[in-house]
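lol so apparently i was supposed to do this last week
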Amino acid sequence: MQNNTFSTLFVGQNLIRLKEVDSTNNFLKDLASNSEPLAEGTVIMAENQYAGRGQVESVWQSQPGKNISTSIYLRPSFLPLNKQFYLTIAVSLAVTDALGAFIPHGIYVKWPNDIYFQNKKLGGILIENTLTGSLIKASIIGIGLNINQEEFSDNIAYKAISVIQILQKSVSIIDILEKLFVYMEKYYLILRSGRYEFLKDLYLERLYLFKQSADYRQGEKVFKGSIMDVAESGHILLEVEGESQSFNFKELEFIHTK
Ligand code: BTN
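anyway here it is w/ biotin bound
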């Protein structure tokens, strides 16, 4: 890759690189509301994100200059209300394809959209939507990937991993970003063309622990279950003691084996 001219039509064509920011998602949200209309596909990337946000109000930690902290601006207003989970699917597929170009085996999506290598977390996705009525007016796709970070703090070291730890060599962040933008555009266009079944089939193929028995927690209750399907609503369907049970994101916790 030279001069950051990505081989895409729109994703990454307007690229804003920041040395430091609280959160690329926050920055992009402010930019979108202060400079409408913002070009679809605008990307923010930051070398250092000092208040990165994760799912369910968690903190996203990343060593400065080592990883990918980026946010992409999309306007998927074509997506009907009952199909909105397919945006999560499309983004998960784009991220796994991009990483798959460097790491040929072992990349999975842990439901709904954590990025795993084998049984450790390689990255995460935080999608924040602005709605008009029931349609998505704008979507901020936040992606954090552990690339060249060699050590993690004690509280996450047992469950986090990076590309450098997997490949035993550093990888160019801009080369991974290029792939990410290419695949993001590809899957976004597939989503726009309405090929929902195609996207869902691929997502299930890449789903971590699909049809495998594993330990889960719901509140105080710990039980074994196997993922059998993911519904259009985004709910996960587990087979638990021979019966199908449906859970939403906040209800179910996967128990990580150390
Ligand atoms: C998760 O908890 O797994 C989601 C992590 C998402 C982190 C990314 S880094 C870029 C973007 N900006 C943020 O503040 N969060 C997302």
